[in-house]
Amino acid sequence: MPLGERQGDKSESRYCGVETDFNDDMPHVLAFNLSSGGFDFVIAPLMDPAYRPSLVQKGSAGSGVPPFAGSDLVMSPSQWSSHVVGKISSWIDLDSEDETIRMDSETTLKQEIAWASHLSLQACLLPAPKGTSCGNYARCVNQILQGLSNMQLWLRIPLVKPDDDSADGKNDTLVDSWETWNSFRLLCEHHSLLSVALDILGTLPSANSLGRWFGESVRAAIINTEAFLTNARGYPCLSKRHQRLVTGFFNHSIQIIISGKSVHPQANVAADASQNHSDEGLQRHALRPYLDYVGYLYQKMDPLPEQERFELGYRDFLQSPLQPLMDNLEAQTYETFEKDAMKYIQYQRAVSKALLDRVPDEEAFTKTTVLMVVGAGRGPLVRASLQAAEETGRKLKVFAVEKNPNAVVTLHALVKLEGWEDSVTIVSSDMRHWNAPEKADILVSELLGSFGDNELSPECLDGAQRFLKEDGISIPSSYTSFLQPVTASKLHNDIKAHKDLVHFETAYVVKIHNVARLAPTQPVFTFTHPKHSDKESNQRYKKLQFVIPNDTGSAMVHGFTGYFDATLYKDVHLGIEPSTATPNMFSWFAIFFPLRTPICLSPGSNLDVHFWRCCGPTKVWYEWSVTSPTSSPIHNTNGRSYWVGL
């Protein structure tokens, strides 16, 4: 049964598994671990661990029938599929110097995977590579992956990394296990069916080092009973750092698996006492106290906020950015944006402050401020501006300029419904071509994209600036884009699945979730309105150098996430840059710029990135490249794959 109920959480991390020993009575294994133990699935060996193909007598009776753990007839297909993850024999070593072991390993691996496919298992757990070299192991697994359609292969990787946080002083003998995983997945070309099952040990590497894994395709975390501490009552518990890590796993749909023998005597005594008093003498599972503790950690998590629940379906889902000048938005898109109350609260605050600065109290009843909403949509900024005027006691004359004829119909209906005919004039026109009858005191727009300028706010406001007074106010008054290198294995695989160049040279809007942020964000391009010089170009170029913290270890960069922060007016800001993000706002997800070939960074190395914003007569586009530690091609040259039309 699931670990518990958490409002809004339907992810796989609700289910907890247990690693079992070989047993050819699979119905008993399931009954004991699921019914008595309360676990949701088992990691069970598929083959007798004593089996070696080279020891099978050729020509003997029964040869060719490997000693599997029960036939497919002993349980229903749904039981095999839903409750069993196949555990590939842990003795196999495909990179052994001994040819017999190597050949036996290859034969056994292929037999067990074929059997798992026959049983329609959803996943198999591959043993961890035995040494630093895993070339032959990866080759065999890659061959197998080419023939699989949906079964996942989880590569077991111990969570170790030599760093200053290690208290055992054995740094010289440890290797960074991320390096092992990275080597293996590169050999298998980032195959989407190859994932990680992390072995969680008693000591953990640094927080930066752990953070890398949340951008990788980690499916399971195997916690050995030896990693648990003992509380005052003799029951198992985890250190604070382990607790935070497990909570992170829950939040990233990573399933917990309990492994090993019970090492908590008091918990075993309680288990025995419970067993003695049970009705039918059912044996109580020795690992039940560990499961109960993991369930406790799950249940004490806060429920998912309403906004997170709304965004669940968008997590790590690639969307093409809007083309607001080329295309007219649909009613559904407008409606989604209009539900973002926080955004319009901030706009109303900005307009209120601008009105108070513009009109002193003694002129409040005599002076009328001209405010133009450029890109009025279906009227949310018109409403926010009029509410600001009412709040401050200032008189307002509003021009609502909108190029989408369908939205203009809605605007007229809104003005009539609200009785705004005397204060609002609707203009059906592109702001860049409209000849205003008078100049505005305040120009209000919501033309910002996820990267600030990526929906052509600079070009639109340049066109509208001619009808703003010399001392007029633009809301927003400025905005800056930000960039950050990330590990994003899922996004990379989703783009790679298209098998073309265009998708690797396109920027995507994404609700990023399963990513590892490798360095703090850095500012890229800034635009200020109104412009002080007509000669100032909207083309931009910026070189950035990101420093990856030393204790992170090696890391893989799949691309860059982009954000923005805007100053609406004075101290009123709006943005999605993580360190200053406006809370409870959902109008914008981050933007993702992929790299055609992911770049591997060594510990403490620098990452040099170049970004260009290019302008042509009919379009605006971005180009980007990496020049250190290695050089990448310049992406999207001349906007050949992705652009925003003027």
TrEMBL record:
The record marks F337 as: Critical for specifying symmetric addition of methyl groups. Keywords: Cytoplasm, Methyltransferase, S-adenosyl-L-methionine, Transferase. It is found in: Cytoplasm. The keyword Magnesium does not apply. Residues 38-300 form the PRMT5 TIM barrel domain. The active site is at E446, E455. Pfam families: PRMT5 (PF05185), PRMT5_C (PF17286), PRMT5_TIM (PF17285). One of its GO terms (biological process) is methylation. One of its GO terms (cellular component) is cytosol. Residues 306-475 form the PRMT5 arginine-N-methyltransferase domain. InterPro entries: Arg_MeTrfase, Arg_MeTrfase_PRMT5, PRMT5, PRMT5_C, PRMT5_TIM, SAM-dependent_MTases_sf. GO terms for molecular function: protein-arginine N-methyltransferase activity. S-adenosyl-L-methionine binds at Y334, K343, Y344, E402, D430, M431. Residues 478-644 form the PRMT5 oligomerisation domain. Belongs to the class I-like SAM-binding methyltransferase superfamily. This is Protein arginine N-methyltransferase. It comes from Arachis hypogaea.
